[in-house]
């Protein structure tokens, strides 16, 4: 009887330790090669500006990911357009926009502002979390990033209310991995967001 009582706590301790989920760290291997288009063709400039120093417009980018083993769910921010993927991979199309009517001391362009906007992922158990970062807003306008995400039918998608992180450092501090996107000269984002 005494042996039984001494053994039980050890068994419980072993069970608890064995159930601990290891932290996912192999993010670089998730990214699949994406054909980079011409940066010039992936950017659309706008003539809408209150100052000749400001070059507003949109930049279109893309990235492909393989699903981490065991992932069954993907979470995306509210407002993300979700469509089925024809392959067993996740494809993300971004639109980075600058529409600012301010009066800066020096040049401001979508070509430079787009570098401060992007997307990231975080794997938690059986869930692949997706987020956006960057962008700004004021009474003079600002910048923003939007996404279209193609997801395999085997993966359930959930949305969550989350504002984009203000900058990359803010969300990297929480463990998010920044995706390396490439220019999308075909502007595929528009294919899924244009109204008929």
TrEMBL record:
This is Lipoprotein. It comes from the Bacteria.
